[in-house]
User: What shape does this take?
Amino acid sequence: MKQTERHRRMRADIVDNILPDVIKNFLLKNEDYGVGSDEFGAKAQVIDISRKYKKVKAAIWDGEELEGEPLEEVIGDMIGHCLLLLEELRPTCTQPYDPMEFTAHDWWCTYVEAMSEWQDEEAPSDG
Assistant: This one.
């Protein structure tokens, strides 16, 4: 299938502009709220995805006005819960690193570790 210039620009916009904001907000919210999957596993994320989906459907399909949070935030939250679900369904990040088998999961673990270090550096000191 031939890619159009519009599709290339759209993908570039997603990777360069949308995903960084979604990931940043996901990390901040996840730090504030914690992870329910610690206690309830993948089912916790499915419930949260379902809850967010109902809001997205109501806004887009039924034309309802959302109260309390913008639609883009709800969609970003849903993406975050999908990421947590993927994490819940995959092996842990403690597997040995093999550069010949670097997966999206490995990238995610590396990214989360780097973001954690970045947040530690950016955190205000108590002194």
User: Anything to note?
Assistant: The chain is about 70% helix and 0% strand. The longest helix spans residues 5-33. The mean pLDDT is 78.
